[in-house]
Amino acid sequence: MIRKLIKLSLLLISIQALSPIHIVFADTGPKPTMEFTFKQDLPEGELTIKSGILYECDLPDCGDAAPLRDLGPQGLYCDATSCRALAYGFAPYHKLKIEFSDGITRESNIFETAGFDSKYTATVRPDDLLVEAQFSLNILSPLFLIILVCVCILAAGIVIIGLIIFFVRRSAKQ
Hints:
Helix content: 25-40%
Structural class: alpha+beta
Number of strands: 10
Largest sheet: 5 strands, mixed
Number of helices: 2
Strand order of the largest sheet: 4-5-1-9-10
């Protein structure tokens, strides 16, 4: 009996040792994002974005400003007309610095994180950027839908349990 267990254990260990190793990717779930839509208030025409830096600050005056580091998916990503930031977690205050096709690098005012999936309008002015949060009630966000489904399941469970108790007591009286 013991010999059979030892042989079986050795067989299982051999199979595991000879199996190809699979790479496993783990994720920590949804991450907060920021979307920047650019509106241009310039007389000379449309500019395109060349590069950008998002500064993170813990102090309201951004005296401790540090660029958002590129760590895995975390970072600021810009195309010619917009920017998007993804992070494991944002600091409370921010400053945006964008280099445009006219060779001028414009820096924004200090702005606060507006929510988990923040949306901002950045107005491009001759010497700087004005970043303002866009208020949007995103009812179809995944988190809202998950909470809604959980609440509905909980409510249905309470109703079903209440009906079972009602009918059990009613049949016990008869």
